[in-house]
Amino acid sequence: MINVSERASEQVKTILIEKNVPVGYGLRVGVTGGGCSGLSYALGFDQKRDQDEVFAVDGLDIYIDRRHLMYLAGTEIDFQDGLNGRGFTFNNPNATKTCGCGSSFSA
Q1: Short-list 25, 41, 31, 33, CA closest to 67
Q2: Residue 101 confidence (pLDDT) above 70
Q3: Helices then strands (H, E): number in the chain?
Q4: Model pLDDT for residues 65-76, shown as the tens digit of each residue
Q5: What number of CA atoms fall less than 13 Å from residue 2's CA on the CB side?
Q6: What is 54-67 written as a DSSP string?
Q7: What is the rounded average pLDDT of the residues 13-37?
């Protein structure tokens, strides 16, 4: 399971409208190799694939490749818009180490 805060959900819905994302696309959450801690978070809009787990959160379809679930289970995605920066943040209970910017981690 993955959690999306109300602020993050509203921001994703705003982006869906602003970018005119086609119907049937959902929010893909994943990890990629790289970053200063070993793994980086990936967010984007995509269609469902056969190997995906689908989570419905606050009216959003969230797609996560089953291979990424072990890194993302229990993660909360939030959105910050303040003096220290603007963007999506990840609170990942599986991360044993994170970088200073919060965009990469190791598990």
Answers
A1: 31
A2: no
A3: 2, 9
A4: 999 999 999 999
A5: 30
A6: EEEETTEEEEEEGG
A7: 90
